[in-house]
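Usage

Read records sequentially. Each one opens with the input sequence:
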Amino acid sequence: QVQLVESGGGLVQPGGSLTLSCAASGRIVSRYTMGWYRQAPGNQRELVALITSGGGTNYADSVKGRFTISRDNAKNTVYLQMNSLKPEDTAVYYCKTWSNLGAYWGQGTQVTVSS
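and closes with the structure output:
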């Protein structure tokens, strides 16, 4: 059974920072590619960042240099550190895994960037 649970969302001022966590079921993080997506109202869900089982990373151009994805295999957790946040970053952020059992999503966590 694959389970992903996001946490860490909230309200932050422009220019501020926030770190999201995705707790996964056992061995998921170490074995498979993990990703963060986001979806704003009226928009399509878009890929923000991903990390492979080997540690390679990719980022959307809109967040490159500001966001960092990382993993802790022992804790089966993936993180998204978000710095220099902009109002355009406001969205529901989702964790995703591409496992051998298929693609699975977390429930999402709201990030709001506003004064």
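Summary fields computed downstream for this record:
- Residues 97 and 103 are 6 Å apart (CA to CA).
- DSSP finds one helix and eleven strands in the chain.
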